[in-house]
Amino acid sequence: MQCTLRTPEQAMHAAHAEHTAPQTALGEISSRISDLDKWRKIFSFCGREGSQTAPQGPAGCGHGAVGTRGAAEPRVPPAEAQQAGRPIPMDMATALRTLLLGNASRTFSQDWAGAYFRFREPRSDLAYALEAEKGGTRAIVMAVQANIIKYLLFMKNTEHTHLERLCKISQKEQGEALAAALADSLWAAGDGRRATVCLLTAATHCSPPAGYKADSFTERIHLFEFPEKAAAQEFIFDHIGCFRDEGSHGLILFLYSLLFSRTLERVQEELCAATPHLLECSSGNVSCTQALLLLVLAGRTQPGQRSEVGFLRWGGEEAEHRLSPVGSMLKTPKFPIWLCSINGTHSVLFGTNQLLLSDWKMEHVFHLYFYNGQHKQTRTAHLTIGAKCPQAPALPRSPTHLQNCASLPDTHSHHWEEGRCEAASSPGRRAPSLEMAIRTKWPGAAVGWNGTQPFF
């Protein structure tokens, strides 16, 4: 997909032509004029505001983005935007591909090059949810999904409560949530001081040197830098089609933006000798390293402090002994949202009560929700967890309390839990891997599936 840029004269000619068109075109002209102030603000944030007037409207770059008209049309940078941004130099393109793939002669596989952020149906049970394909891209999509959930549950102002915040959203609100999630990762990667957004333009900016294999899009990258998070988020939303349209290379554009926000030099310094690059290539498959996932979730490749979104992993006893442990800071984030790596497949586990991780009493019996990104999942799975904080005294258990909690699992000895534990330990039986991942955070927790078929 190409982002076609127009000169100011072409844009003004187009606006004049529409002015003489039928009355139905007046709304289009008004919308294009309204874009002037947006671009002036962007130029100002980038420190490149000049005396020229911004064009009346940007040219097309695919379909499906949400603009000021509410119509399905993407936003792409017009000619003046190139003054605010800068084309990628060849040495940066080489370093970028080397940092991700280990060698500039390697290119992205078809599934990576074609990956973008695609939502489920708006105003549905899974309106908040991104679809994730099989393969390595799924991990990045689910990491962004965790940030989308964080925004919708704990950041966005709305009259809706709890899960209604996730299922009531429109297509426009989906775009807003994606823009907020992407901007949040970029801003964290820039240490809260800067964010860089990468978009594609039609022209190739550099000639590949020997040893560099062109991929038709890295060489067309244009970099837009922002010293304010709000400006970066607005810019992404105005060009959301460049991340969520088919053929946009949206997922790779986000990864490039993330690395430039952190700076290539700093990411390289943070990587250890055992993980010299961020993607692992094996037998034709490309998968994410934990360092790259942490960069999406926390803005750094190594856990240095408590992050806003957490990480849980389960791959069986043997795998857990072989892999480096997931630390307590990743298991106990600021918000009750976790990216889960379960047998190498990524998904999201989350709660709606922000006090869950700050008040041990909330961990006695609580609810979590699970989304695995697969198209066959049609509703968010609802889990009830019984977990007892080891250092906390047991809560009083009056007859009334027992009656009210009779249907909820608890680490205290309920008869159904004893049967489930016996079944899980019986020959030929095994506990669902999701339950094992949950127990890496809450040891010994009982998990109730509330009618959902357990995910193994």
List keywords for this structure.
single chain, 456 residues, alpha+beta, six-stranded mixed sheet, 18 helices, globular, disordered N terminus, cysteine-type deubiquitinase activity, MINDY family member 4B
Explain the overall architecture.
The protein is an alpha+beta fold and 456 residues long. It folds into two domains: 1-7 and 31-274 and 287-295, no CATH class; 303-390 and 400-456, no CATH class. Helices cover 38% and strands 12% of the residues. The protein is built from 18 helices and eleven strands. A six-stranded mixed β-sheet has the order 6-7-8-9-10-11. Helix 8 packs across helix 9, helix 8 (171-189) runs parallel beside helix 11 and helix 11 crosses helix 12 (264-270). The two termini are 38 Å apart. Mean pLDDT is 78; it is low at 1-25, 38-76 and 388-428.
SSE layout:
Blueprint (H helix, E strand, L loop, with lengths): L7 H12 L6 H20 L35 H4 L1 E2 L2 H12 L8 H4 L23 H19 L8 H4 L3 H19 L5 E6 L20 E6 L2 H10 L2 H4 L5 H13 L1 H7 L8 E4 L2 E4 L1 H9 L11 E5 L2 H6 L5 H4 L5 E6 L2 E6 L14 E7 L9 E6 L12 H6 L10 H11 L7 H7 L6 E3 L8
Parallel strand pairs: 6-7
Antiparallel strand pairs: 1-3, 2-3, 4-5, 7-8, 8-9, 9-10, 10-11
Helix pairs in contact: 6-8, 8-9, 8-11, 8-13, 11-12
